[in-house]
Specification:
Length: about 290
């Protein structure tokens, strides 16, 4: 199976061109094996670029643990780059079918290849039952986490100044946003999986800790559902933009600093859509024979 490794802000996936390659019979199993950073290629997951009856291409995305996700913001930018640069559809805007629906992507071209992509991520989902979360709605904004959900909390709360309040947003996949004084000190490897799998999130959740610098700038770190700590999460950055407005922490346009790079976000007041702009890059090609 021929593959291409690509990354957007360090959020790396293995891409398979199913216009040319037969899709794997068990993509979940392939994702688990190929994503392993010691015994496989190493990635945050597997993305299949498939033909679509209603768009230029269809994206199917599998996390490193094999679970299929609805959407990946960094991944879809790379899909757009691949579709353009490899001649599947050389045009802008592109339309890509996802588990979230068909999204529109505008391409920034340099020397004949895509360098950055602006994605119309659609409207955020704010109804608590549709995110989903069992926390009382209709919206979950700055809501206190249930007592005893995280235990023990005293040491890390004091260390990084995290506020035990959550704002929940779906961008087609669920996100939980918490604010803190020093995002670098959040013990993400221990607290991330606890919150991801907490009973208040029936389909698990992506978890983001955010340090606000100004109304237009913030730094975030992510524990990604099904993949663990990642260098970037595009849908998560969109959720952070929306949460910042709802929680009155940031403006509708922000620059988000992620460990793997920066993303520009806007929650437009006019049509309620969220727009994300960021880079996409190819890393290498290879053949998977396992």
């Amino acid at each position: 199976m021929h593959f291409t490794k690509m990354q957007g802000c360090g959020n790396d996936y293995i891409y398979v061109d199913c216009f040319k390659e037969k899709p794997p019979a068990d993509p979940a199993a392939v994702s688990r094996r190929i994503s392993d950073r010691h015994f496989g290629v190493g990635a945050d997951g597997l993305i299949l670029i498939c033909p679509s009856e209603k768009a230029d291409a269809r994206m199917r995305m599998f996390n490193a643990d094999g679970s299929e996700a609805e959407m990946c913001g960094n991944g879809i930018r790379c899909v757009a780059k691949y579709v353009h640069d490899h001649g599947i559809a050389r045009k802008s805007p592109l339309r890509i079918e996802t588990g979230r629906g068909v999204l529109t992507l505008e391409l920034e071209i340099g020397r004949g290849k895509v360098e950055r992509v602006r994605v119309d991520m659609g409207e955020p989902i704010l109804d608590s039952t549709k995110i989903p979360t069992t926390l009382p709605g209709p919206r979950v904004v700055n809501q206190a986490l249930p007592a005893g959900l995280i235990d023990p909390v005293d040491r890390w709360v004091a260390n990084c100044g995290v506020e035990l309040r959550v704002t929940c947003v779906s961008m087609g996949n669920p996100h939980a946003v918490l604010y803190c004084r020093d995002v670098a000190k959040v013990p993400l490897a221990s607290i991330g999986p606890e919150l991801e799998t907490a009973a208040i999130f029936p389909r698990r959740s992506n978890v983001h800790f955010v340090q606000v610098h100004s109304p237009n700038e913030a730094t975030m770190r992510t524990w990604e559902r099904g993949s663990g700590i990642t260098l970037a999460c595009g849908t998560g950055a969109c959720a952070v933009c929306v949460a910042g407005v709802l929680a009155e922490r940031t403006a509708r346009k922000i620059l988000a600093h992620l460990p793997g790079g920066d993303l520009q976000l806007e929650w437009a007041a006019g049509d309620n859509h969220v727009f994300m702009t960021g880079p996409a890059a190819e890393v290498f090609d290879g053949e998977w024979v396992n």
